[in-house]
Amino acid sequence: MSLNKVILIGNAGNDPEVTHIDSGSVVANFSLATNETYKDKTGEKKTVTEWHRCVAWGKNAEVIEEYVKTGQLLYIEGRIKTRSYEDKEKATKYITEVFVSSFKILGAKRDGEPKQAKVEAQVEAIDEIPPLADKGDLPF
Fold first, then answer.
1. Given the DSSP bridges, would you call strands 92-105 and 120-122 parallel, antiparallel or unpaired?
2. What CATH number does residue 121 fall under?
3. How does pLDDT run across 23-74, given as a tens digit for each residue?
4. Who has greater pLDDT, 124 or 17?
5. Does any domain span residue 1?
6. Does the residue 76 lie in any domain?
7. How open is the CA angle 63-9-124, to the nearest 5 degrees?
């Protein structure tokens, strides 16, 4: 058995970039910043920010397009996917992304707007989970 699930709570790093595809699908891309705070050997407080590329499809993307703005606190659930591509110099590059399966907006809208009700969106997985391989195919 295996599990690919990620849960993040962080701030939207940018307004989502939303694309409406000819097939009628909607995809939203945005970054999410999570912070880790600790004290170093001298006792000085340090904060390290980790950036996550997030991708949402369908109804999630539509809700994100309408409600998510830079800086908003978000709760994200999804799965990690890595893909590769060739750059202009023909070098292979890899991108790791969080494919959003559900999310909640945890904070108020920006610019002094009144606190909104938590927006929830949840959709079925975009692509099917492939069947498990025969035990003979597994290295363990």
1. antiparallel
2. 2.40.50.140
3. 889 999 999 999 999 999 999 999 999 999 999 999 999 999 999 999 999 9
4. 17
5. no
6. yes
7. 45
Tally the domains of the chain: 1
Question: Residue 126: its pLDDT value, please?
Answer: 38
Domain holding 114, by residue range, is: 6-38+46-127
Residues 6+ apart with CB under 8 A from 83: 94, 95, 97
Cα distance between residue 100 and residue 61, in whole Å? 9
Residue 136 lies in a domain: no
Q: Collapse the DSSP code of 66 into the 3-class scheme (helix H, G, I; strand E, B; otherwise coil) and give the result.
A: helix
pTM: 0.72
* Long-range Cβ contacts of 38-44 (<8 Å, 24+ apart): none
Inter-residue contact 122 to 83 (CB < 8 Å): no
Tell me the pLDDT band of 107, cut-offs 50, 70 and 90. confident
Length of the chain: 140
Q: Residue 134 falls within a domain, yes or no? A: no
The torsion defined by the Cα of 64, 67, 73 and 76, in degrees rounded to 10, comes to: -20
pLDDT of residue 134 exceeding 80, the answer is no
